[in-house]
Amino acid sequence: MTEWWKNAVVYQIYPKSFKDSNGDGIGDLDGITEKLDYLNDLGVNVIWINPIYCSPMADNGYDISDYYRVNPIFGCNEDMERLLAEAGKRNIKILLDLVVNHCSDEHPWFQKAVADPDCEEAGYFYFKTTSDGKAPNNWRSNFGGSVWSQLPDQRWYYHTFSSKQPDLNWENPKLREKIYDMINWWLDKGVAGFRIDAITFIKKDLTFASRETGDGHLYPIENLTDYPGIDAFLSELKEKTFSRYDCMTVAEAPGVGEKTFRSYAGKDGFFSMIFDFNWENMEGETDKSDTAAVDRWKDKIFQSQKFTYKNGWSGVFLENHDQSRCANKFLEEKCRNYSSITALAVLYFFLYGTPFIYQGQEIGMRNALWKNIDEMDDLRAKGMYYEAIERNDDPDKVLKYFEELGRDNARTPMQWNDNANAGFTEGTPWMKVNENYPAINVAEQEQNPSSILSFYKKVTRLRRDPKYRETFAEGSFSPLYENIPALIAYTRKRDVQTITVIVNFKNECQAIPSVNGKCILNNNDSLLTKENRLLLQPYQAIVFAD
């Protein structure tokens, strides 16, 4: 029997920026409840909500101070219960973000640990003292600077990310039991599962030895993910929580390669799936419309898909809260239009894996224009910007990088209509609204049967159509026409059914051999053939079934 989450279409909500219901400028749970009919009409059946727990919001909720209570800026626990109930009426399931590599420095556990080095909670974190008063090693955090910060009593504590996010010590069995109790509490409340944040960081190199870098800079902690011994933690996590429920779990698991993929996302893996980061951007490609650049990207997609089909399951996506907008990531400015953006949708939505849509992706939202670093909210961007200044490097290079690829690009408020603040809030939005909202918004596209939003509705319904969904969930993956430049094509086969996906990722026409089957989706009004050839228009995307 096919697991339910293989037939899911997931919509990711960044709650702070989705819909504000009370005019305080911050999105909230009641705003999500208000838009459930919109999401139901879009065709999604699972919603993943970024962290809504109590937090000082140093890193937009990924610094949790109370795992059991909703942050007042988003509402209260009763609002969450109402959201779960209303979503259930529409057959929509809710996933929460699970952040257990670290917590907030304002969490009571850490506060107790700071006050009393000998208390039980002190064992929930990594503390070190050094004879010379210097940091214990030369490791660099993911947000810039050292992974170590010092307390007034001279102890150093470890943080993979911000100093406001002390890492939890998974070596401590008492700490692990506290985490399992919390997870089961939410699952008992009716949550359908979790997206698990930064899980490959929970196992550390306990020698904490410095690493050679060659250039004298700090050693990037990104290279210490999926560390040996992590499997014992993840096996216990699954056994004491997830395996007791019919839930969906998707792990953010950087560092997991082909050798360990089955352990994470195979038939009996730790999680239902992990996100496929192997092809989620074209970073480094200066000319994204260049045929060679497209073909390099195509090779990454095909290589990943051929492996995943044989070894497990993945979450496939174009955007998330940590990425820039897909129109900017994958398309040159001159090529950003209805055809190219809908071609991207077709390209990834029928791959082997569960498709995720990020809020605003379905209307083609774009990166914002950032004037300076002060306009940005991202801790990582600011940390690396000021670190560059300290190193006498050029901070403008950092700013340019984050203008194109920074996380804030996905965090600007959702564009609902062309009213003030894009209909997101009646107050002052917590982050600036993208200036293009009068042209790109939900209200305008809902009235237009030829809009990007209308096309996304066709895509989601096809992905969940009872006639085809088992082929999408269980069917084999095979590349097609691999040698045709800038053509990304593949088949999904199950029993006697074959579904063929054809995407011309070229801003010009090209002819390919004709494809058997009935056209069941087309982002172009025409379907042209000549002398047993299929004549594809620029960025035309077609799905056939036989």
Summarize this structure briefly.
The protein has helices at 29-34, 36-42, 77-89, 108-115, 173-189, 230-240, 258-265, 291-311, 326-330, 338-349, 379-390, 395-405, 442-446, 452-464, 469-474, and strands spanning 10-13, 46-49, 53-54, 66-70, 93-98, 127-128, 139-140, 148-150, 156-158, 193-196, 219-220, 248-251, 273-275, 314-317, 354-358, 476-480, 487-494, 497-504, 510-513, 518-522, 528-530, 533-536, 541-545. By secondary structure, the chain is of the alpha/beta class.
Could you please describe the fold and organization of this structure?
- The chain is of the alpha/beta class.
- It is 28% helix and 17% strand.
- The chain is built from 15 helices and 23 strands.
- α10 runs parallel beside α14 and α11 runs antiparallel to α12.
- The chain starts with 9 loop residues before the first strand and ends with a strand.
- Write down the Rg: 24 Å
Please report which band the strand proportion falls in: under 5%, 5-15%, 15-25%, 25-35%, 35-45% or over 45%: 15-25%
- Low-pLDDT runs of 5+ residues are none
Q: Largest beta sheet, briefly?
A: 8 strands, parallel, barrel
Alpha plus pi helix count: 15
What oligomeric arrangement do these chains adopt? single chain
Helix proportion: 25-40%
Mean pLDDT metric: 95
> How far is it from the N-terminal to the C-terminal residue, by CA?
23 Å
The general outline is globular
Structural class, please? alpha/beta
Beta strands, count: 23
Sheet with the most strands: spatial strand order: 1-2-5-10-12-13-14-15
Task: Describe this protein with a few key phrases.
546 residues, alpha/beta, 8-stranded parallel beta barrel, 15 helices, single chain
